[in-house]
Amino acid sequence: MKRSLLGRAWPGTVAVVLFVVFAFPVYWMFGTSFKDGKDIVAETPQWFPTSPTLDHFRKAVDADGFWTLVGNSFTVTLVAVALSLVIALFASFAVARMRFKGRKSFILVMMMAQMAPWEVMVIAYYMIVRDAEMLNSLPPLIAIYTVMVLPFTVLTLRGYVAAVPKELEESAMVDGCTRTQAFIRVIFPLLAPGIMATSLFGFITVWNEFPMVLILSKDPSAQTLPLWITSFRTTFGDDWGATMAASSLFALPVLVLFVILQRKAVGGLTSGAVKG
Amino acid sequence: MSAQIDQVTAEPVTRTGKGGAPPPRRGRAAAGLPYLLILPAGVITVVVLGWTMVKNGLLSFQDLNKRQLIRRVTEWIGFDNYSDQLGSSDFWKVTLRSVLFTAANVVLIMVLGCLIGLLLARLGTKLRLLLALGLVLAWAMPTVAATTVFQWLFAQRFGVVNYVLDRLGWHSMADYNWTGSQFSTFFVVTVLIVWQSIPFVAINLYAATTTIPKELYEAASLDGAGPWKQFTSVTYPFLKPFFLATSFLEVIWVFKSFTQVFVINEGGPDRLTETLPVYAFVEGMGNQHFGVGAAISILTILILLALTAYYLRLVLKQEEDEL
Predict the structure, then answer these.
(1) Intervals of CATH 1.10.3720.10 along chain B
(2) Does the CB of A77 have a partner CB in chain B at under 8 Å?
(3) What pLDDT band is residue B135 in, cutting at 50, 70 and 90?
(4) CATH number of the domain at B83-322, out of 2.60.40.10, 1.10.10.60, 1.10.3720.10, 3.40.50.720?
(5) Could you give the ipTM of this predicted complex?
(6) Statement to judge: residues A98 and A234 lie in one domain
(7) Are residues B140 and A204, on separate chains, in Cβ contact within 8 Å?
(8) What are all long-range contacts of B50-59, with beta carbons under 8 Å and residues at least 24 apart?
(9) CB contact under 8 A, A122 and B158
């Protein structure tokens, strides 16, 4: 009896400790951003904001060109994700439902592209974009980000298309639908979870992307929010309040989206990443 | 699961068998259709990714520094960039450092991630949701935000980590400068990467364990197998492909990680924490030796390919069997 009680108690204790370990940095980010200055620079850390303030958020948002960066981040993210989704829908349907010569090579190319070490190729991108006189503009970023999320989107959607029973599509075609109609009326609605998962993943990837924009956009007019967070610390010295407020604002949409859609995302991520 | 579906659909689809021979026009259109559908994806990938690979290769054979960049001249120098790098002790030091850094991170991620995944499977619903929430929060944290938060956690003055270590009795850590030495900087980067990466492994492992038939465990415990024996005889064989794939994905992700290493300390102190991607960046963009940087990046990609060759071959073979 005693042993089984102990046996039941330790996983719970460990789980609570681990929860604190994983959630604390996130809490600390939000917590710090609401603290007033003297709570932040306290010899004994204040675990909760004693007199909550929005000053740091004001300071972060008042930074030069903040709204330009917000606009850029949303433009780049939404356009790239939408583009890759449309392109990937076509490709994944072909790959999942049709047999054709070169199908295997196409899948392999996508799998290799998914592992492309983008971070390592920044110099070549810099030279190409510079030679095209397109440094400090959004289109190169959009093109790169589209291809960055495309392989994952194709491979994941391929799994979702393949999981739709072929009979559904066939019976729709027997009932007189064309292949296109069958796709729009039968397969597309069933793909909604897959589309959610892949766009979520794409959103997070593009929203967070740092090395490429660091190199291609020296001018604030074409920068995105990740640079806003890091540029802060050099501008303000060690103004942790403003840095954490900026990080919080940046992370909030991703955290909310991810927590809501996580269940769907896990299935999508595994089928794309592990199963290929 | 996708394997079964692929087998079912293995018959040629372009021939719509049921209603007799399809009209020839539609048949020809259908033969071209798949190519039309994959065309946009193929073209944009080749242009944006493929051409950059080629360009990267071309750049690595050029003497391309600030002068050539401004005057826009191309000076070919053959393999000089490569022989310089392969002959320099710096390059090999950075390579060894990157490999050790990757190995340490991946081992920590896989061991801790799997333990936490197995723990998730043992927990009751409430605690499982609580732990999963913590994991998901860490997983979802954007890399740049997470990196700045860890800088703040490990800050020399007013950082929580130093305060807690001091309170726990390690008083010399009260004002410890984490970015002051090679080892401590790598320690912070490793904690950050492991913290960020464990949720992916743990949650996916948990999801995978739910697919193991319960009967196998019942049979095992009837045979008198304890928890460890159950793990080695049921869980591990069942999840072996998962372990393999995840380990290699983590190798790829950790090896090419740039943001964490660069933002925490920009490769410092004294360039002692530069891993290969950061080294290529600092040499190429920072010191404006673009040709050298391109050569380093090609070598980095080759090393990454060598490290993951076993997995890549396996994936290719598996796909070949499946398709």
Answers:
(1) 83-322
(2) no
(3) very high
(4) 1.10.3720.10
(5) 0.85
(6) yes
(7) yes
(8) B51/A128, B52/A121, B52/A124, B52/A125, B52/A128, B53/A121, B53/A124, B55/A124, B55/A127, B55/A128, B56/A121, B56/A123, B56/A124, B56/B294, B56/B297, B56/B298, B57/B294, B57/B298, B59/A123, B59/A124, B59/A127, B59/B290, B59/B291, B59/B294
(9) no
